Amino acid sequence: MDIGNINGTTTLHNGVTMPVLGLGVYKAKEGSEVIESVHHALDAGYRHIDTASFYENESGVGEAIKSSKIPREEIFVTTKVWNDDQGFEETLKAFDKSLEKLGLDYIDLYLIHWPVPGKYVETWKALEKLYSEGKVKAIGVSNFLEHQLKDILNDCSIKPMVLQNEFHPRLVQQSLIDFCKRSQIQYEAWSPLMRGEVFKNPLLKELAKKYGKTVAQLVIRWDLQKGVVTIPKSVHRNRIFENADVFDFEISEENMRRIDALDREERTGAHPDDFMDHFRNS
């Protein structure tokens, strides 16, 4: 994994290169807000945009990419199939809708958003079909644990290239990261800043001051040094630029371990084993 500058990439097990830093657009409103956010990110040097059908802003992301004047092949675009659209045929239809909304000819990375019980293996087989047809450059999963990954590895012909999970200093899941490394699955972080909770942590504030950085920059750098692709979300130009300013310092091994030790298995989102109730009640 190259983390020398904002152009750094990691190579997935199928040879596709994925930028190590991206912009997440969860909760960015469709229309001008998400379009401007993507433009800010591209201006800052990001070449990786992460959306999902559930976010209801794929059209804006596509419009921003088209109007950016940056060649399509230089921008890595991720989207995801939502829970209600899982199953083999349903996923194929959902993919076509996402592709149409984005206005693109292909998707760089297509993910299963959550492991819907009884459906995610069939959903994965649909992703394999999309991949084999060249409609997506890479396929992966989001919000999966080791046992759900093993279901796919044991029953399918193509192993996931990426696992995107909630990941921050309070939720490290090192054994899962290690499993992914052994399986050649790239780990990726959503909610790397724990929805702002990291800013309150005394150790992170202390270390940020030591390195002359913000807490957000410290945590994003920690992600990258752990070999984790990260997609901090923001709609504010200054924050988007700030989050990219993480390539001019290095956290020592000792301080990496101190940040690791903050792990408390705390989640801001649902647990992958009981998320259905979470979304049913929300």
TrEMBL record:
Substrate binds at residue 113. Transmembrane segments: none annotated. The active site is at 55 (proton donor). The record marks 80 as: Lowers pKa of active site Tyr. InterPro entries: AKR, AKR5G, Aldo/ket_reductase_CS, NAD(P)_OxRdtase_dom_sf, NADP_OxRdtase_dom. Keywords: NADP, Oxidoreductase. GO terms for molecular function: oxidoreductase activity, acting on the CH-OH group of donors, NAD or NADP as acceptor. Residues 27-263 form the NADP-dependent oxidoreductase domain. The keyword Endoplasmic reticulum does not apply. Belongs to the aldo/keto reductase family. This is Aldo/keto reductase. It comes from Salinimicrobium profundisediminis.
